[in-house]
Design brief:
Blueprint lengths: L10 E3 L8 E12 L6 E11 L3 E3 L1 H9 L8 H16 L3 E11 L2 E10 L13
Length: about 130
């Protein structure tokens, strides 16, 4: 059992690459440090993506998220770093990372960052009666 966090994101082959389908991951216990005070910042990280050839392996994602626990970073930077690292690992058709930080000094912060592959077009949503 690993006892240390890791920045290494593992992937596995998308079992259905011929189809667009949405993968949603919710991480309610994300922690990093405020770069100004060193106090902990807590957030729920929501990841939504449409895989191309690779999917992120969840145990490695958990260890990756743990790696931020002792790092100081502004909310905007940590959200975009997570998106960049996940995009580099999986090369998805589409990915969105939404970081909902808990209240600090009476202020809630939500940061949303997105990636879309150049050759991919989002499907039209189906509206059922």
């Amino acid at each position: 059992m690993p006892t240390q966090p890791s920045k290494e994101l593992e992937t596995f082959d998308n079992p259905t690459p011929e189809r667009d389908f949405t993968i949603r991951i919710k991480i309610p216990e994300f922690t990093c440090l405020c770069p100004k005070t060193g106090q902990p910042d807590f957030a729920t990280i929501n990841i939504e993506y449409i895989a191309d050839q690779q999917c992120v392996e969840l145990k490695s994602l958990k260890m990756y998220m743990w790696s931020f626990r002792n790092e100081g970073a502004f909310h905007e930077k940590v959200t975009n770093d997570i998106l960049t690292d996940l995009v580099n690992a999986t090369e998805p058709r589409f990915m969105r990372v939404c970081a909902e930080f808990y209240v600090r000094g009476g202020i809630y912060t939500t940061v949303i960052a997105e990636h879309q592959a150049k050759d991919w077009t989002a499907p039209v949503p189906v509206q059922l009666p």
